Amino acid sequence: MPAAHPPGFRRRALDLVAQGNPIGQTARDLGISESCLRNWINRDAVDTGRKDGVTSDEHKELVELRRRHRVLEMELEIFKRASAYFARENVPPK
Predict the structure, then answer these.
(1) pLDDT (tens digit per residue) in 45-67
(2) Rounded-to-integer distance, Cα 51 and Cα 55, Å
């Protein structure tokens, strides 16, 4: 995966397009792909509320919550197995 561009670079690219520069020419001048620049434009439109969708902050929160949910499910599974193990150990022989 290519290295992420700094936020200032992205902001400058978006400002150039907002000033009326063509997307293709702006992308070539900055050394990025046209599709990358279009993705930045779409992400900015969602983040500023001009377009419906999940904002960057909401996406980060959702990713973190899903990660935390996986961790909690793994911990629960470990507790269940430990509980079953110790329950078997405390059963008196017949």
Answers:
(1) 999 999 999 999 999 999 999 99
(2) 10
